[in-house]
Amino acid sequence: EFDVLVIGGGPAGSAAAIYAARKGIHTGVVAERFGGQLMDTLGIENFISVKETEGPKLTQALEQHVKTYDVDIMNLQRAKAIHKTDHGVEVELANGAILKSKSVIISTGARWREMNVPGEKEYRNKGVAYCPHCDGPLYKGKRVAVIGGGNSGVEAAIDLAGIVSHVTLIEFDTKLRADAVLQNKLYSLPNVTVIKNALTKEALGNGSKVTGLQYEDRATKTEHVVELEGIFVQIGLLPNTEWLKDSIDLSPRGEIKVSDKGETSMPGVFAAGDCTTVPFKQIIIAMGEGAKASLGAFDYLIRLEVP
Ligand code: FAD
């Protein structure tokens, strides 16, 4: 039996595991893919105190750091259910194994919803981007598009308009869904064009990087090309919490609801990082939240009745 079992091996889960192991308690990590979203990331320039790194390199550093402690890492394993028992918590893995722990920290992260159009995968990190906070500065003085007219798309367009030379915002619907105050701000900016009722068809490129975006005007069924250097996809961030929907309280967007200490609705179960309701999904934030949830779990453990 574990004292702390961490589900997820991204920045949040790694931080949680290190904080738990440093208390000298029996700690395990179950991860479908150690590193999480870092494994899909190229340049990282906002991990404070490290001027520049790359996702796989940071993953290696995280793994090395976790492995300096006595942590049982179960990589390439997926959790599929969680139950509260009289004695603690049970986590069921996809391979059928049941792991028992006194406390659990869920840090299963999230994934960006993709457009599923030609060129999107091919030019990922070569012009196709998902995170304006991360990659915005790489497009300084260049032309970009933002796909999606919800709050995140319009926020991204406003943010990017201050850095890049021009932003084209593409919305599928005939109207933007973002809050009115954001829309007003967007329309006040001189270097933003908004195109509504448009279906993105393809991320165009020259083999090594993005050169344009092709879309269909849904009213006239005509195709158009916007020449640009970057495409920011902002059509949703999906938390990896489908496996929890019958056991733990989630927000309408599927994010795990957490308290100040990272507690979830299930006693002894904590959560941290991109899978939670905590806003602004970033590496440094996920790590901080992982540390916090781990200290929350320790606080819980020292209050358990002596058997
Ligand atoms: P994740 O990194 O998503 O890790 C989740 C972990 O849980 C993984 O190990 C996964 O395999 C595992 N998992 C999921 N489901 C299960 C399950 N059922 N059972 C077991 N394990 C499971 N942020 C920045 O701060 N700077 C950047 O420059 C930056 N660039 C980015 C570029 C890209 C392309 C992407 C996609 C993201 C970027 N981000 C960046 C965001 C950053 O990667 C995330 O905020 C961060 O990784 C979140 O950490 P996390 O631990 O919460 O989740």
From TrEMBL:
Question: Which cofactors are required for activity?
Answer: FAD
| Disulfide linkage | C131-C134
How cofactor binds (record note)? Binds 1 FAD per subunit.
Q: Does this entry carry the keyword Oxidoreductase?
A: yes
One cellular component (GO) term of this entry: protein-containing complex
Gene Ontology BP term (one): response to reactive oxygen species
Record's keyword terms, sorted: Disulfide bond, FAD, Flavoprotein, NAD, NADP, Oxidoreductase, Redox-active center
Keyword Disulfide bond on entry:
yes
**Where FAD is bound, by residue?**
3-18, 264-274
Chain sites annotated for binding NAD(+): 143-157
Q: Which residues form the FAD/NAD(P)-binding domain?
A: 2-290
Molecular function per GO? flavin adenine dinucleotide binding; NAD binding; NADH-dependent peroxiredoxin activity; oxidoreductase activity, acting on a sulfur group of donors, NAD(P) as acceptor
The UniProt entry's sequence similarity note says: Belongs to the class-II pyridine nucleotide-disulfide oxidoreductase family.
**Subunit structure, per the record?**
Homodimer.
What is this protein's name? Alkyl hydroperoxide reductase subunit F
Identify the species of origin.
Polynucleobacter meluiroseus
Q: What stretch of the whole protein does this chain cover?
A: 211 to 517 of 522
